[in-house]
Write a structure and sequence with these properties.
The protein is α+β, with helices and mostly antiparallel strands. The chain has two domains: 166 residues, Ribosomal Protein S5, domain 2, CATH 3.30.230; 125 residues, 2-Layer Sandwich (Alpha-Beta Plaits). Strands 1, 2, 3, 4, 5, 6, 8 and 12 form an eight-stranded mixed beta sheet that branches. Strand 9 and strand 10 form a beta hairpin. The two termini are 14 Å apart. It binds 4-diphosphocytidyl-2-C-methyl-D-erythritol 2-phosphate (SUD) and adenosine-5'-diphosphate (ADP). The site of adenosine-5'-diphosphate has 19 residues, from helix 1 and helix 2. Adenosine-5'-diphosphate binds next to helix 1 and helix 2. Belongs to the GHMP kinase family. IspE subfamily. It catalyses: 4-CDP-2-C-methyl-D-erythritol + ATP = 4-CDP-2-C-methyl-D-erythritol 2-phosphate + ADP + H(+).
Length: 305
């Protein structure tokens, strides 16, 4: 096999509770992840030398400024390929070409999706034969959200978000995404949350609200809208106050709920169905002049195309 393409989804956090900082700098979380229909593709091609190289496909320019995108050793796809090679003892090079659609530093786990796609693509290209579970354990060493980008679907995430409990949903939910023209750094948003909470005792979260889990499983969108929550919202708003009007815009335009996705700044608006999603996205574009587009979830995790 000379070349293979893997695809992995972005995510939104329908619910996200954050505990106090731990000694390793991470926070314990309780996350309700939903993989949505916005995908990253990673094409892996065999190299005859032992180099691991990366490029950004020109089709990505609508979501990423090539000048701002790291194309060296710190790119998550390079780190993923190197980790797989080291773990398996495989000796061979690979070129990885990324087609990005998920906003960079947008709170939608685009980098994690790239890492997950790179693990799946290299595992197939090199014939290293790791199971999904083994890839998940390796992925957790690259980032807290990488195991979920591998599994996809919907899941409760505990620990730092990497201990997954998959959920089988009976139907899909539809969302309108409003991406921002700027990014927010995940560590800075967590640090801002700690600052805002200074002097306040916060327990480590132990579960996702079971009523919300049940509502999402059966597709009770009204209850999902009532119970959806994200502890990182005040921190994202403190760093990017312009998010406030975007959230209000969704409310005024009739979304069922508006959420900052993860650490932001992408806003996810829950809607009734696919038709409502198209209508709301058009309305936000026409009346407010913002970029807005429909997605739905759950969708599959990282897989070969
Ligand atoms: C906030 C969330 C919600 O799903 O997603 P994004 O908004 O980034 O997409 C995640 O917790 C982000 O996960 P991910 O982006 O994989 O984080 P990592 O690369 O592992 O960590 C980046 C940094 O975020 C902070 N971090 C991350 C996860 C966590 N449970 N506690 C943390 O404090 C740490 O400062 C860490 O150094
Ligand atoms: N393949 C990659 N795709 C996206 N970001 C990457 C990648 N490799 C490294 N990064 C770095 O990770 C940072 C955050 O990544 P991203 O996953 O897009 O955001 P978020 O954590 O908000 O979901 C970016 O600012 C970028 O510098």
């Amino acid at each position: 096999m000379r070349s293979v393409v893997a695809r992995a989804p972005g995510k939104i956090n329908v619910y996200f509770r954050v505990g106090p900082p731990r000694e390793d700098g991470y926070h314990s979380v309780a996350s309700l992840y939903l993989a949505v229909s916005l995908y990253e593709d990673v094409a892996a091609s065999a190299r005859t030398d032992n180099e691991i190289t990366v490029s950004l496909n020109p089709a990505s320019t609508s979501v990423v400024d090539p000048e701002d995108f790291p194309l060296g050793e710190d790119n998550l796809v390079v780190r993923a390929a190197r980790l797989l090679a080291e773990h398996t003892g495989h000796v061979a090079g690979v070129h990885l070409d990324i087609t990005k659609r998920v906003p960079v530093a947008g709170g939608m786990g685009g980098g994690s999706a790239d890492a997950a796609a790179a693990l799946v693509a290299c595992n197939a290209l090199w014939g290293t034969g790791l199971t999904r579970e083994e890839l998940g354990r390796l992925g957790a060493r690259l980032g807290a959200d990488v195991p979920f980008a591998l599994s996809g679907g919907a899941a409760v995430g505990l620990g730092v978000g990497d201990e997954l409990f998959p959920l089988l949903l009976r139907g899909r939910s539809d969302w309108v995404l409003v991406p921002a023209s700027y990014g927010l750094s995940t560590p800075k948003v967590y640090a801002m949350l700690d600052t805002l909470r200074h002097g306040v005792d916060v327990p480590a979260p132990e579960e996702v609200d079971p009523e919300l889990v049940q509502a999402l499983v059966v597709g009770d969108l009204g209850r999902v809208a009532d119970l959806a929550a994200n502890d990182l919202t005040p921190a994202a708003l403190a760093l990017a106050p312009e998010l406030g009007p975007v959230l209000e815009m969704g409310d005024r335009a009739g979304a069922l709920a508006e959420l900052v996705s993860g650490s932001g700044p992408t806003v996810a608006m829950l809607v009734r169905d696919g038709e409502h999603a198209s209508q709301l996205a058009t309305q936000l574009q026409d009346e407010a002049g913002v970029d807005a587009f429909p997605v739905h979830g759950p969708v599959h995790g990282a897989r070969i195309l």
